[in-house]
Every structure is written in structure tokens, then in C-alpha cells.
Specification:
Blueprint (H helix, E strand, L loop, with lengths): L17 E4 L3 H11 L1 E7 L6 E6 L2 E6 L5 H13 L5 E10 L9 E9 L19 H14 L4 E8 L20 E3 L2 H11 L2 E11 L8 H6 L3 H9 L1
Parallel strand pairs: 1-4, 1-5, 5-9, 6-7, 7-8
Antiparallel strand pairs: 2-3, 3-4, 5-8, 6-9
Helix pairs in contact: 2-4, 3-6
């Protein structure tokens, strides 16, 4: 497949080697306008905003992934394989599965369990364990430590196909030490592995499945900035 792709209208060279990927197109716009210098809109197909600018003199891109593994699966595949992007850092929200995680805490997804069948396409003779790039993860932890005032955890995420889970199956992962549930990281990690590229999911806790604590949609869009700053410093 050549570029532009069916889902991305950017021309060759318009994406940086590192792309920050929030789920929400409006969050991508907010990040570009707030943190990047000379940001240029390079994609708007299907309302999925993508921008490229600079941060501290370094070329960086930010583009939304949409919601769920099928969506991030498409965009990350095209970025890795058609646009020659080397690193994708997901910056999204997650629901806490443990009472000691609170709204605005930051979680690094060292691994991503999933209830999805995304891995079946690779026809592997067993179960694949989707994991982050160690290089990106280590850099992210170093940045979080240097910032000093961030409550962060490192561990396993659950990438779920269902937001409204009738069986409350997400809570069953708690017994295996899984920190939080989100909907994209596992597919991103698998696409990165297949392409020989790097990926990391940094999520901010937006609500708790244990305590009922939650944040508003407006807060999720524009105020969860610690993970954004970490991702930009990695880039």
C-alpha cells in the first residue's frame, strides 16, 4: 500500500519518527496547540486530527487513534509500515482495578493483557504476550522520576474490547495484579512487534472500577497533562 493511505492523507515525510497517540481527536488538537511549536495539520481524514510540530527543537507528531483495538490497529499499522514511524506512544485514559490507584495517577503499561482476538491474524502456535519497548519504558520512568511530583505505577494493563462489560469481566483480572483497563495498548504493542518498531502506553487513571471515583469528559480531554509531558520528553 502506498501513501496517502485510505485513512491518512499526510504526504511522505510529514510525520515525525515519534508519534504521540491519544484516543480523542480533540485531545490531539489540544496537545498540538498547547505543547508544540509551529504545529501543522497533516491529517483530518474521518475527523482524526494529526499534527506535526516541534518540541524543544525536536520534530514530533501527534495523531488520534480513535477508540478500541480495531481503530488503533489501523492507524498504528499505517504509521509504522507506510509512513516509516519508529515510535508510537499511546497517551490515554484507563480505569483503575485497584483501590490504591486514584484519578490522575499515571500508569505505564509494561505489558497488555487482552480479551481481544487481534493476535489470531498472526497465526502463532500459542499465546503472544504484548509488551512495551523497554527503551521507551525506561526513558518514561526516568522522566517521571525527574518530574518529582507524579504518582506513577508500572505493570500490566488490560486492553478490553468492551467498555460496557455485562459480565464485569475486567475485575477478574485484578487477581493477577493487572493495574487498570483500557482499550488500545495490546493492539499497538502487537503491531509494533510485527513491524520491528517501538511502542509504549502511558495512561492516566480517569476513573476507578473499585471506588467509583471518576473524572469528567472535559477533564479527560484537556487536563491530564503529566502523561503528555512525559511522552514529549521521551520524544
Amino acid at each position: 500500500m502506498s501513501i496517502p493511505t485510505p485513512h491518512i492523507a499526510a504526504k511522505e515525510g510529514e510525520f515525525a519518527k515519534t508519534v504521540l497517540m491519544p484516543g480523542d481527536p480533540l485531545r490531539a488538537k489540544f496537545i498540538a496547540e498547547t505543547f508544540l511549536e509551529d504545529a501543522v495539520l497533516v491529517n483530518q481524514v474521518r475527523g482524526i486530527n494529526g499534527y506535526t510540530g516541534t518540541y524543544k527543537g525536536k520534530k514530533v507528531s501527534v495523531m488520534a487513534s480513535g477508540m478500541g483495538m480495531p481503530s488503533i490497529g489501523i492507524y498504528s499499522y499505517e504509521l509504522f509500515n507506510m509512513y516509516n514511524v519508529d515510535n508510537i506512544i499511546r497517551i490515554g485514559t484507563a480505569g483503575a482495578l485497584h483501590a490504591n490507584l486514584h484519578v490522575r495517577d499515571v500508569v505505564f503499561g509494561m505489558g497488555a493483557c487482552t480479551n481481544s482476538s487481534f493476535a489470531k491474524q498472526f497465526e502463532l502456535p500459542g499465546t503472544f504476550a504484548p509488551i512495551a519497548s523497554y527503551e521507551l519504558l525506561q526513558k518514561g520512568i526516568d522522566v517521571a522520576k525527574s518530574m518529582g511530583n507524579i504518582n506513577y505505577r508500572v505493570g500490566n494493563l488490560l486492553s478490553s474490547d468492551t467498555f460496557y462489560d455485562d459480565s464485569m469481566g475486567g475485575m477478574k483480572w485484578q487477581k493477577m495484579g493487572v493495574m487498570a483497563v483500557e482499550m488500545e495498548a495490546a493492539a499497538l504493542y502487537m503491531n509494533a512487534a510485527r513491524a520491528g518498531k517501538n511502542a509504549l502506553a502511558i495512561c492516566t487513571i480517569s476513573d476507578s472500577l473499585v471506588t467509583g471515583e471518576c473524572s469528567s469528559s472535559e477533564e479527560r480531554q484537556s487536563s491530564f497533562n503529566d502523561m503528555v509531558k512525559i511522552a514529549l520528553e521521551i520524544a
